[in-house]
TrEMBL record:
Cited NCBIfam families: ahpD_dom, peroxid_rel
Carboxymuconolactone decarboxylase-like domain sequence ranges: 204-256
GO molecular function, one term: peroxiredoxin activity
InterPro entries: AhpD-like, AhpD_core, CMD-like, Uncharacterised_peroxidase-rel
Gene3D superfamilies: AhpD-like
Protein name per UniProt: Carboxymuconolactone decarboxylase-like domain-containing protein
PANTHER family according to UniProt: CARBOXYMUCONOLACTONE DECARBOXYLASE-LIKE DOMAIN-CONTAINING PROTEIN (PTHR35446:SF2), SI:CH211-175M2.5 (PTHR35446)
Amino acid sequence: MTTVSDRAAETLTVLRPDVREAAENADAAVLRPEDQSQLGQADRARIALRVALVNESPSYADSVAVALDDAEVVADVERWGELPEATQALLAHCEQVALDPADVGADEIAELREHFSPAQVVTATQVAAYASFRVRLESGLRLVAGAGDGPASQAGITIEAGAAADGFALSTPDQAFPSMRWVSRVVSGGDFTETLKLDSGVLSAQTLLREAIMTGHGALDRADRELAALATSLINGCGYCTAVHGKRQVELSGDPLTAVVLAEAGPAAIADERLRAVVDVAGALTYTPAALAAADVRRLHAAGLDVDDVHDLVAVSSMFAWDNRLIMTLGNAVRS
């Protein structure tokens, strides 16, 4: 009999081999690590279940709930009183990371630190951010597979790029995407890598997955991958990723306008139909729950992207659901 886990694994077979292997390794590192001294497998599954539920992903919820004896309690917020206080705090934090990482600040991290060590905070946040990636990856790939024939979704009103700023001058790329530094809320004086090294196994797996998705030999042009990362980061409100990937998109594309227009005037100001479709679809996958539909996939095909291009695009937007959540919650980005 085919299980939920089997179906999830089948969904990933359409990915590039390097991305698929890295995604499978990341799944094991986050949810089933050999060393569970920082956070047990049951707590990891509880977090993943809450993330799946707020993302309205029943298939992923079912796949992680099988590891729990208290899945019904975790699924029902009104029954959380049956759980230990620390577990309630853990679930509340991770649900907020999934729903709106912009609302997780220093105070929220401090509250979680009343129950957990810095390493445990990092691990829990990694689980929540990873599950946010996984639900989008699976749902997006299923939509690509089942898009079929039919009408494509339509973009909003597109205006000429020259009028994008509606009377104000656009910034230069250096102005729009300034150098940023990141200050940890978990490790005093620590940078991003130092903070994530508190769970080095996940950091290693995550880094390999990001590299495969963003720089591997995929179908989608690397500049378009960076544009999708930028679109995702703008919706989530991650200033650090916006600066890094906006600047990289400009460098890779040789186009000093599109990324700046997106950041300062929004998607409707992008005149190029293909780039606008990339931005809109990446953005639709960003929301919690995702707003992506089969008609959006058909729109990408109509704009000239083949199925492998779209697989790459789904992977990029999903990856930045993970990265944005770590950067926005575990620390704070400021201009260098």
